[in-house]
Known about the structure:
- By secondary structure, the protein is mostly beta strands.
- The protein has two helices and 20 strands.
- The protein has helices at residues 7-29, 60-72; strands at 114-135, 141-163, 183-195, 205-219, 224-238, 245-259, 264-277, 284-287, 291-300, 307-315, 322-324, 327-329, 333-343, 347-358, 366-375, 378-379, 388-400, 410-411, 415-426, 430-432.
- Strands 3, 6, 7, 8, 9, 10, 13, 14, 15, 16, 17, 19 and 20 form a 13-stranded antiparallel sheet that branches. Strands 1, 2, 4, 5 and 18 form a five-stranded antiparallel sheet that branches. The protein has a two-stranded antiparallel sheet with strand order 11-12.
- A hairpin with a 4-residue loop joins strand 6 and strand 7 (264-277).
- The termini are far apart.
- The model is unreliable at 1-16, 18-51 and 76-100 (pLDDT under 50).
Amino acid sequence: MCPRHSPTHRNLLLATGAALICVIGSVCAYEPQAKLLPPQADAIQPAAQQEQPKQPKQSDKDKKTDKDKDKKEPPKSTPVLPPNLFSSNQNQNQPNQAPQVFHPHMLGDLPGTFARQFVPFTSTTTLTTTKTVVDVESGQVLKSSTTTTTTTTTTGNRIVLVPAAVLGAFKVAENESPMPRDRFFGTWNYFGNIHDPLNNAVPTSNTSLSTSSTFRTFNPSTESILDTTIATKANTVVTGTPRFTGNLNREVIGFEKTFLDGYASVEMRIPLLQQGGNISNFTFSNVGNITIVGKYAFYLDRNTGNVFSGGLAVTAPTGPGVDTIDGTLHSTYLQPWFGYIWGNDRFFFQAFHSVAAPTDPRDTTLLFNDASINFWLYRGTPSSLLRFLVPMAEVHVTDPLNHRDQNSAIFIPDFVVMTGGMHIGLPGRAVLT
């Protein structure tokens, strides 16, 4: 039998059991990630007065493990995306500024190519002959003067230098950046007062040459002495060739697409050319040679935008050939190149170095060295109407490596061209240069 308990003992046992039941119920009901049920109407309390579930106490061993983990695994930084004109998160670390890892492209120049070509001309000669017979003793003109006129015309060719723009924007530094990127682009260039480097103008000539000859004869029938005079006058007109002066409109449309996580890209350029001038034989409007540029970044710092890259540009003879005194040239150009960008907070420097080698040995191999200095004049926010202003100054040096003789079919002098401009960041990640 169970021993009988007094009321005081019975009440103490009941209170103790109730307390144990409450503790056990609280421990079983606690879940660190349990969903909160909607509160009962009579159990709603202010947020400040509601009790928060207690976190389980962490042991010293677990604390030590967490400390060691913190020491061994430093916090990971947010990765910076590669420069991309069409990326909406170009600078995740500084969302309130224009992306600093994006550096605008180089402007470029027009490398001058001159073809030595034949220009036809005509030569017209008018010959006038006059014959007169005079009696020596009396001085009387025995025979009236007779005049005959003959005209002869001949044609020939004259060699002149004429600008040839069919290659289009084949130079790798034209509208280019050493950084691989995704973009669509369109450019328009107008070049005025284009002329040959040498003054090949030949004016129209008009020359006259007069001759006269007299011979004496004896007329037995009249027993008189006669003087016969024959006078000739030759007038020759040779058509001239004016110095070629003209202008060129050049439009280029193209695209660039990256791959290999932004370390490489391929680009295509399609030039449209319209050349006008004072010599109708050398005016044209057509599609120039298409250029494909391959690019790979051997070194790429996506936090600063510094890059060292290289590749190959191939210009295919899709446009018309170049007529020269040595026949029509239709070369394919192979242009290995390397380029780089280096910059700090406000300035950045970029350059290209390349050699353009034609497949036709009659054509000229060219060495290109192009460099530019750029300055971040203004930086706005990505959502502002004016995102940035970047003025730049560029120097372009072109040197022919062969056929430097001015009598060659293709003549390209040594060029040093300085250009300047401004990159303007517009909404929608567009750039106007």
